[in-house]
């Protein structure tokens, strides 16, 4: 059994050929990707299958969705041991305004925010916008 198959099984996701291919595609990118990018990479595949795969990955903690302010949801693979729940494993995302790429900065955690009594956080998202390392070298 491959490493990807083991990971999918660990997350209670059946390792179908399409799911393995999508996981490999996302792992190669090393950045957040849009559903449109996945659809363009797998043009001969059914769009509904691709969308369901991403939803399954998200529901089972394999990817997390990022709202980087562009209005287009992006998806990034969760790192080993990641628990993308509020109060668990929240990290900063960086969106490059030059190349339009969004990356997870998993070593930079969002500090816990104490809300007033009666308030309950459902989602926390911190996106830093600027010029990424690749674009700043040019």
Automatic annotation (TrEMBL):
Cofactor comment text: Binds 1 zinc ion per subunit.
GO molecular function: DNA-binding transcription factor activity; transcription cis-regulatory region binding; zinc ion binding
Cofactor: Zn(2+)
Sites where the protein binds Zn(2+): 96, 99, 132, 135
Pfam families documented for this protein: FUR (PF01475)
InterPro entries, alphabetized: FUR (IPR002481), WH-like_DNA-bd_sf (IPR036388), WH_DNA-bd_sf (IPR036390)
Gene Ontology biological-process entries: negative regulation of DNA-templated transcription; regulation of secondary metabolite biosynthetic process
Keywords annotated in UniProt: Metal-binding, Zinc
PANTHER family noted in UniProt: HYDROGEN PEROXIDE SENSITIVE REPRESSOR (PTHR33202:SF22), ZINC UPTAKE REGULATION PROTEIN (PTHR33202)
Protein name per the record: Fe2+/Zn2+ uptake regulation protein
Organism of this sequence: Galbibacter orientalis DSM 19592
């Amino acid at each position: 059994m491959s490493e990807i198959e083991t990971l999918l099984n660990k997350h209670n996701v059946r390792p179908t050929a399409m799911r393995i291919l999508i996981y490999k595609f996302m792992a190669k990118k090393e950045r957040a990707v849009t559903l449109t990018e996945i659809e363009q990479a797998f043009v001969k595949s059914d769009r509904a299958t691709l969308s369901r795969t991403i939803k399954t990955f998200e529901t089972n903690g394999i990817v997390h969705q990022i709202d980087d302010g562009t209005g287009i949801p992006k998806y990034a693979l969760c790192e080993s041991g990641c628990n993308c729940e509020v109060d668990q494993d929240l990290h900063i995302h960086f969106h490059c305004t030059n190349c339009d790429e969004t990356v997870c900065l998993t070593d930079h955690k969002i500090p816990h925010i104490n809300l007033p009594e009666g308030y309950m956080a459902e989602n926390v998202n911190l996106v830093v916008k600027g010029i990424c390392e690749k674009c700043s070298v040019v």
